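Hello Y.,

Per our agreement to keep a running log of every chain we model this quarter, I'm adding this entry. I've kept the format consistent with earlier entries: sequence first, then predicted structure.
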Amino acid sequence: MVWVHGGTNTDGAARFYDPTPLVTAGDVIVVTINYRLGALGFLSHAALAAESGTTGNYGLTDQQMALHWVQDNIAAFGGDPHDVTLSGQSSGGVNVISQLVSPASAGLFHKAIVESGSFVLDTEDLKTSEGRGQEFAARLGCRDQSVDCLRSKSADEVLANQGNPWGGFVGYALSTVDGVVLPMSQRVALGSGQFHRVPVLFGSNSEEGRLFVPPGMTATDYPSTLTGYAKAAGRSVAGVLTAYPLADAATPTAGAAAAFGDSVFACSSLVLSGLLAPYTTLFEYEFADDAQGAAPQGATHGYEVRYLFGLSFMGPALNGSPADLPPASQALSLAMRRYWAGFMRGGAPDHADLPPWPLAVDGKIQLLVAPHPQSGSVVSYIHRHKCDYWN
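Predicted structure for the entry above:
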């Protein structure tokens, strides 16, 4: 496995992920990689494109360089260069999908795992992305928009002015349709079958939105918050309050978190399934364990990672390792690691001691619940996450 870490392509590092639990439970080799982040990895600018014919996807080309390194060197570690699984979570999952559609990744991996990574299927176009880059250059003081001026700035200046995806300004996209590294958006490429047709294991968590909605939301804030989600998704504003009535929510925060998680993660995962299904083998999951109440935000975005790795990046609520989990959750963690290893070995998440994991095209989704996973229905999933509204 080659692991591409998450962090909105802005934060994170390979060292925050200890793959020992997965390696020891699955008898597999895991390579964790770093790649350029933020403006250093994803800035798009016409002056840079003029130099090399491409711009905006430097982090993706770093990942491809790492995959080439694996091809050249993994045999020395006992690995098979013809049996590589590319895996990532959150923006790392977005990057895995980008590698699925990038021509330069052909032959570099043979299976893919996407954890909560289907939320940006409409890759940003070059004109829009370069517009971000121009504004970033102006913020840096490069009014002439020249490469020389951009390169004269220190790393600290770049980081101080690049913005971030959660602020009012961000100088770079998660990736860009540059015509070279990414010839077309993820959605168009996947929907037309123009991608590397390897087996894919993918899914999302049951309470993704809890990480992103601040606590303490009031009933007064609730309608405007949900209206914002509906507009961002291009859905009926009136319909969102019908789908998520405040009276049905434990708190306004819980209701808003459900709406955000369903819109951005749960239902986009179904869209990904629909795009891939005609062309390749798919296995879908929903992770839904709250560590017997020990997880304060439930099965939120990123929480499944500590069931596979030792994690030291996401803060006290999410950090830890499988050994820190309650007994029932430890059993689920072991099952997940065995599923993941089975997929890495044979292209299907099989293990003799685990419940069968049916194909996604059979209308099934594997529910990763403690202590033992079980098969669930996609129809039930659609109802639970209001995907008839969002999709």
